[in-house]
Amino acid sequence: MNLKGKVAIVTGGTRDIGKAICIRLAKEGAKVVANYYNNESNAKETLKEIEAAGGEGIIVKGDMTKKVDVDHMIKETISAFGESIDIVVNNAGGLVARKSITEMDEAFFNKVMFLNLNSTFLVSQAALPFMGSGGSIVNIASQAGRDGGGGGSLAYATSKGAVMTFTRGLAKEVGPRNIRVNALCPGMIATKFHDDFTADEVRTKVEGMTPLRRQGTAEEIANTVACLASEETSFMTGANVDINGGLAFS
Known about the structure:
The protein is of the alpha/beta class.
């Protein structure tokens, strides 16, 4: 998977899955723009690891639910690497909190939708004018988008299901330009996401139900993103790819 000279944007790119994606793309030769929201220390450490992997990169702070911040990130990308963007990885997002429908208010539901869906829309829309033939957009969806998620993740699952549909629709729209759009639907991955929101006993139970008998790793997600970003998957678009150890099949 040779990405030498390609320019890649990774939103939410300085922790866990996002960080692993940045480093993996850098190892393949991409110039990486790692977006972060509020943890500058993590961002600087990610940039060090990108450079240690032999890559070139910049870090850009911004809230990907706000168009002004998205536009700033695109401007910084162009300033650093020229007027061509080859790869966009929409990884920014999150669960925020586990709440049932009776516990959440409209503001909470909208916040989760904006965080996961609107960010994907805004970044894709802003990047596409700078993407040419062979470009690739990879959206990070979730197994929750297929099965409705675990307890208290209704809003999150809904937003990720919407990301999956957005992926299919955008793939049709930009396919004639030879730009591909795919998504990953991770199952349980051993990251801070589950450290924060999933009880240890639940994680152990899920491991036992998974044919591979373990949780996935951020690096395994990153490996698949690199493949989808490369010419190795040049006839693959509109796909929502399961990566869950066999726990659920689409």
